[in-house]
Amino acid sequence: MKLRDLSELAARNLREAALRNVLTTLGIAVGVASLVAMLSLGVGLQELVGRRLERSGLFDSVLVRPRTGNGGPGQARDRFLGNGPAPGATTAPPPLDEAARQQLAQLPNVVEVYPEFRFTGDLRLGAAGHLAQIASLPASASGNDAFEGMQGHFFSSPSAHEIILQLDLARDLADLQQLQPAALIGREVVMRYAGRQPVAPGTSEAASSDTPPRRARDEGSPSPEDAALGFSIVSSQVPLRIVGVVEAQAVTSGGGGFGNAGAYLPVVVAQNLGVVQGNDMSEIVRESTTGASGNHYTNLTVRVAHPSGIPAVENAVKAMGYIPFSLQDVTRSLTRVFAILDMLLGIFGSLALAVASLGIINTLVMAILERRREIGVLKALGASNGDIRQLFFTEAGVMGLVGGTAGVLLGWGIGRAIQFVTAIYLRRQSIPAENIWTVPWWLVAGAIGFSVVVSLLAGMYPATRAAQLDPVEALRYE
Amino acid sequence: MTQPGQTNGAAIHTEMLARHYKMGNTVIRAVDGVSLDIPAGDFLALLGASGSGKSSLLNLLAGLDHATSGVVFVLGRELGAMSALDLAHHRNRTIGMIFQSFNLLPRMTVMENVELPLRLAEVPRVERPQRVMQALARVGLSARLTHRPGELSGGEQQRVAIARALVNRPRILLADEPTGNLDSATGEEILRLIAAINKPKDNPGKDHPADLPNQTDSPEATTIVMVTHERALAERYANRIVTMADGRIISQESMVAPLTPRGPVTEQQGGTRP
After folding, report:
1. Band of the pLDDT at B257, cuts 50, 70, 90?
2. Contact B64 A380 (CB under 8 A)
3. Long-range contacts made by residues A171-179, C-beta under 8 angstroms, separation at least 24?
4. What is the pLDDT of residues B169-219, one digit of tens each?
5. Over pLDDT 90: what percentage of chain A?
6. Residues of A with CB below 8 A from B167's CB?
7. Do A88 and A167 share a structural domain?
8. Which residues contact B43 (CB under 8 A, 6 or more apart)?
9. Are residues A208 and A235 in the same domain?
C-alpha cells in the first residue's frame, strides 16, 4: 500500500477510537513535555552560567607574565609548571613591554590587551582620607557582572579622570561626611599615591643630596645600576570624580585578578599617572641584573573574543616566550558537569516517555482486539502482512508525531510558566530576573524525533502481532 | 502429483487437498482428500451441512489458509508454493470474496469500502473513482456512495460487498453463504446478480432485475464458487453442485439447464470430474 493510503487509513483508524487515542497521545505529549522541560532547564542553566562566566571576564582572558631571568627561583617554578624554557636554554627572556603588547594584540581572536595597575592610594574627601587598594579597569569591563545594577554609571570615557568606589569603601568615605554612599556620586575625591618620577642619567646625585654616592659611570650610557635607579618615588595626587558605587568586586585582569580592590580607575588614567606598584622593586632588581630598561609591564591581560579561542592564544603566548595563565581548565570541568547534569535530566525526562510508550503498546494491542475482524477482511481483500504491519506502525508513528509536537509545545508552555514565576520570585528578592529556560531548535527536533522513534518501537510488538494474525481466525472473530 | 500446466485448463484444480486441525489429542479433518476441477466460467455450488468443510475448502482456494496436504492450483499457479506476499496479491487481484456477514468496514462509506482493494493494489488515485463507480453500477448501487453500511439494508450491503469483490476485476469469485443473512427474496436477488456476473451474455433466459446491468468488464466469464446450504437456490443458479460431508465430496451434480425444473443429473462420488 502506498504511504498516502496508509496515512489516510491510519488517520481514519485513529479518529474512530478518538478518546482512547487522544489520551494515549496526551500521555506521549506529557512524556515529551517532561523531557523538554528537564533538558531545557539544563540547557538554560548551562547557558546562564556560561553567560555569567563570560561576562565575569574570568574565562575569556589570558594573563600573560614575563619569564623570570636565568637561574632564578621563579624560573625553576616556571619549569616545574611546564612554562619555562627547556633546561639548558640560555636565551634571555623577552621583556613584556609595549612592543610585546602590540604583538599580542595582533594575535587572532584577541579583542584587547591591557595591563593591570594595582596600588595603594589615599582617597581624600575634604580633610579626611582613607587608604584603599586601587585597581585599573579597561573600558570593556563595563559589561562585567559587577557593574550590573551599580549606582551611578561606568567611566564616561577610557581616559576620564573618574573613579568608581566599591560599596564598603564608599560607606567608609560617606561616614566621614555623614552621607549615604550614593550621595558621593558626582563628588570630587583627591587620590594621593606614590608616583614614579623619571630621573635623567647622571642627575640622580643632583636630584637629592641625601642619595648615597654612586659609582662613577665608565661611559656616557647609563650602567645597569644607573638604569635600575632611573626614577624617584614622589608623593603625588590627582583629583578624580566619583561616578559610581558598585556592590560586588570587579575582576580587573585575566586569571581572576589578584586580591580585592576598593576603587577602580580607567586603565589609561592609571597608566598615565605613573603609579608605583608593589612589585616595582623586584622590577628594579630585575633590570639591574639583566640590563633591560624601559617601561615593562608586570603582566598583561589578553581578552579573547570567545572562551573557545583561549587554547590557541595560550599556545601563541608560549611561543612568544611568555607565561600564559587562564581558567580554561575550570570551564572544561564545568562543561563536563553540565553534560552529566543534562544526561541525568534527560534520563528523568525520558522516564515519563517510557511510561507513555507503554500506553501506546496498550492502545494498539486493544486496537488489534477490536479490529481483529477488520484485519481479517483486509487480508481477505489482499492486504499483505507488511501492509498490516505498516498500518499499525503508521498509527503508532502518527501518535508519536502528534504527541511529540504537542509535548514540545506543552514543555515550552511549562518552561514559560516556570520562567515567569521565577522572574517574579527573583524580583521580590531584589535580584534581576534571569533567563533560566532555553528551548534550542535541536531540542525541538530531537524531542519530536525521539517521540516518533519511541512510538515506533512501542508499536513494533502490536504491529507484528497484527500482521501475523491468521485471517481465517480473524474473520471468524465476533 | 499434478505439475503446473497440467490442470486441464481448469480455473481451479485440487488434488487430495486436506486441511486438518488439532484440538488437543483430536484431529479434526475439515477437508479430507478433496480432488476437484472447476473449469473457467463454471458456477459451482458447494453444498453440505454445517461443519462439512465447505468454508474450509473455500478458504484454501482463496489462499487464506494453508493445506495440510495435497495441492491446489488456481489459474495454473500452485498456492502452496506461493509466498505470503504472492498469496496476498492472489487474494487481491485473482479472486474476489463475498461473505455471509458482508464484512464491510462499518466506519467507511460505500465508496471507501469498494475502493479498499484498489488501495491495496496500488491503483493510481485518478483511476479509482471510475473503477468504483463501474463496480457499483454493476450492482445497482450508484446512488448510495456516501452511505455507511449501517445505513443500508442487508441486500444492499451484500451488493456493496459484491462490488468490492469485483472492483479489481477478478477471474474467480468465491462466495461464502452470500444469502445466509438475507431473506429469501433478497437472497434470490443476490443470486441473480452473481449469476449475471458468471455468464453475463449467454444467460438470457434468467430474469435479472431491471437495475442490474448484464455486463462485465472481463473478456471471459467469471468463475464462481459459492458455498451455500440452500439446495433449491443452488439448483436454480449453479451449473454444478458439489456436496460435501465430513470434509469429503460425496456427490457432484451437473445441472443440465439451471433455472429449469428438470432436476440434476447425479455423478459418481469421490471428486472425479463429470
Report:
1. low
2. yes
3. A172/A130, A173/A123, A173/A125, A173/A130, A176/A125, A176/A126, A176/A128, A176/A130, A177/A125, A177/A126, A177/A128
4. 999 999 999 998 888 888 888 999 999 888 765 444 333 343 444 444 444
5. 9
6. none
7. no
8. B194, B195, B198, B199, B223, B224, B226, B237, B238, B239, B240, B258
9. yes
Q: Which residue out of A6, A381, A384 would a mutagenesis test of the B interface target, given it has the greatest number of B Cβ atoms within 10 Å?
A: A381
Per 3-state DSSP, what percentage of chain B is helix, strand, and coil (rounded to 5)? Answer: 30, 25, 45
Domain that holds residue A363: 3-54+333-476
Q: What span, in angstroms and rounded, lies between the C-alpha atoms of B179 and B185?
A: 10
Domains of chain B with bracketed CATH = 10-266 (3.40.50.300)
Residue B30: its chain A contacts at CB < 8 A?
A: none
Nearest to B14 by CA among B30, B28, B1, B27: B1
Q: Quick: pLDDT tens for B111-158.
A: 999 999 999 999 999 999 999 999 999 898 888 889 999 999 999 999
Tell me, yes or no, whether A37 and A76 share the same domain.
Answer: no
Q: Please tell me whether residues A184 and A75 are part of one structural domain.
A: no
3-state helix, strand, coil in chain A (%, to 5): 55, 15, 30
- Range A16-38 average pLDDT: 87
Q: Which residues pair with A281 in a beta bridge?
A: none
**Rounded-to-integer distance, Cα A265 and Cα A271, Å:** 10
* Distance to chain A for B117, nearest Cα, Å: 6
What residues of chain A lie within 8 A of the CB of B116, using their CB? 378, 381
**The predicted structure's pLDDT at residue A407:** 92
Q: Are residues A282 and A384 in the same domain?
A: no
Grid cell in block for residue B48: 453440505
Region of A178 (left: φ > 0; alpha: ψ -120 to 50; beta: rest) is left
CA distance B245 to chain A (A): 20
For B39-79, write each residue's pLDDT tens digit: 999 999 999 998 899 999 999 999 999 999 999 999 999 99
State whether A382 and B120 contact (CB < 8 Å): yes
pLDDT digits (tens, 9 = 90+) for A342-382: 888 888 878 877 888 888 888 888 888 888 889 999 999 99
Q: Do A382 and B107 count as a contact with CB atoms less than 8 A apart? A: no
A15 and A128: one domain?
no
Q: How far is CA A1 from CA A110, B97, B121, in A?
A: 61, 19, 7
- A380 and A315 within one domain: no
Chain A: give the shortest CA distance to residue B105, in Å: 7
**Measured between alpha carbons, how far is A27 from A358 in angstroms, rounded to an integer?**
10
| A446 min Cα distance to partner chain B (Å) | 33
Task: Examine the domain organization and report whether A245 and A128 are in the same domain.
Answer: yes
Q: What is the pTM of this model?
A: 0.65
Residues of A in contact with B109 (CB under 8 A): none
Angstroms from B224 CA to nearest CA on chain A: 17
A428 interfaces chain B, CB cutoff of 8 Å: no
Of A265-269, A328-332, A401-405, B259-263, give the lowest mean pLDDT range.
B259-263
Q: Do A471 and B64 touch (CB under 8 A)?
A: yes
C-alpha cell recorded at residue B268: 459418481
Contact A379 B89 (CB under 8 A): no
In A10-69, the residues whose Cβ lies within 8 Å of chain B are 12, 16
Q: What domain count does chain A have?
A: 3
- Test the A interface: residue of B101, B105, B176 with most A CBs within 10 Å: B105
* Partners of residue B117 in chain A, C-beta under 8 Å: 381-382
Nearest residue to A171 (alpha-carbon basis) of A264, A242, A245, A249 = A245
Residue with cell 446491468: B213
